[in-house]
Amino acid sequence: MKTDFGLSAYWMPYTGNRQFKQDPRIITGADGVWFTDSDGRKVLDGHSGLWTSGLGHARPEITKAVSEQVATLDFCPPFQFGHPKAFELATKIASLMPEGLNHVFFTNSGSESADTSLKMARAYWQLKGETKKTRFIGRQKGYHGVNFGGVAVGGIPANKHLFGEVLETDHLSHTMLPENVFSRGMPETGAHLAQELERFVELYGAETIAAVIVEPMGGSAGVLPPPTGYLKRLRELCDKHRILLIFDEVITGFGRCGAMTGSDAFGVVPDILNVAKQLTNGVIPMGAVIASSEIHNTFMETAGPDYLLEFAHGYTYSAHPVACAAGLAALDVLVDEQLPQRVAQEAPYFEDLLHEQLSEKPFVTDVRNYGFAGAITLEAAGDEPLKRPFELAMAMWEQGVLVRYGGDTIQMAPHFVMQRPELERLVGTLSDCLDRLA
Ligand SMILES: Cc1ncc(COP(=O)(O)O)c(C=O)c1O
């Protein structure tokens, strides 16, 4: 593989740098559902980039919008000034959100969305005069990015242990019950686990809990659809105890679950909903936090004279004009081509492929799926639970298919436009590589 640019200076994120630099995987092009590597091989992108690019890569609509925007307004200070596309995109996003979520605060990533939503929740309660409401409840196996707030509420131990704790948090149990293995779609058992919130209320007092943050469907821990009734129960308990409910929809937002949002797919509306990734189809970094009118209006009504800030928060690149142009074009494609509906239609086919081809394979201890998201869990190789997924993903890369390996799982996230032969190639290659690894 061609690496005459030098490998040592770039400290790669979430990558085994030492292994990578011995055996680099360099991607040089992308089109539709395919990547090209630096040897000129076509590689099937089985993960929509990084859950980002459901519309397929190099969509001409987005390319055109981005090029035009760079030439017209390449930057606009987002503090104290605005540009038309920021308002257009916020209006568009609000129109696609569940009823009641009407106000869009722009960020540049999922991690920034997580920390923004936590700050928004705390500030809301401060403005309401409930100054003790500062604690957050996350969930085991939850992933909310890598900034300090997100790490604190997150529940994947490997992401936490070197960094210490900075927030008062606690964590609900995860919902991967042994009786739910090999569930198709939402597992039947587990709604009772939401009830644990009552224990935290008893332990800490509802007057100290600002918000619960969960992914409606866990993604990074390896596709954990919510058990039937779980999110509804969580919503009821949050209402009962006046605790805000935040959905981190960085993966589920904009189509992945066969509906516009996870909230729509699972029929539960949060107070705050975080998005990123699919918002611009991954083309330009962008995220957003969408708040209820109650939250937004509380800031607007209690901030003092109107020349003062209502929320002392924001990023230099919030609502970047080029990201806004990409977002507007990407959401138009998503809506015009009815891609969430396509995902809903094709999801049963993907589900059948996953369960029929993978359930009986060596090392596979679980298969899970929802919409266009699927994962398997693999038995540990001796005392090395992370090794086999890595080896399997490398074997698949050799065969020209990219999947994500994370923890003891392999994760697949087909593009919303992926056709059946490509879905078959994705799952078929995984199946073959499992046999070969045995
Ligand atoms: C649910 C969730 N929240 C937050 C993030 C962090 O997003 P980013 O990597 O854009 O900061 C991710 C990324 O995978 C995610 O899946």
From TrEMBL:
Question: Which CDD domains does the record associate with it?
Answer: OAT_like (cd00610)
Under the heading InterPro entries, the entry gives: Aminotrans_3, Aminotrans_3_PPA_site, PyrdxlP-dep_Trfase, PyrdxlP-dep_Trfase_major, PyrdxlP-dep_Trfase_small
Keyword tRNA processing present in the record's keywords: the answer is no
TM segment ranges:
none
**Keywords tagged on the record:** Aminotransferase, Pyridoxal phosphate, Transferase
For activity, the cofactor(s) needed are: pyridoxal 5'-phosphate
Q: Which family does it belong to?
A: Belongs to the class-III pyridoxal-phosphate-dependent aminotransferase family.
What is the protein name given in its UniProt record? Aspartate aminotransferase family protein
**Which species is the source of this protein?**
Candidatus Paraluminiphilus aquimaris
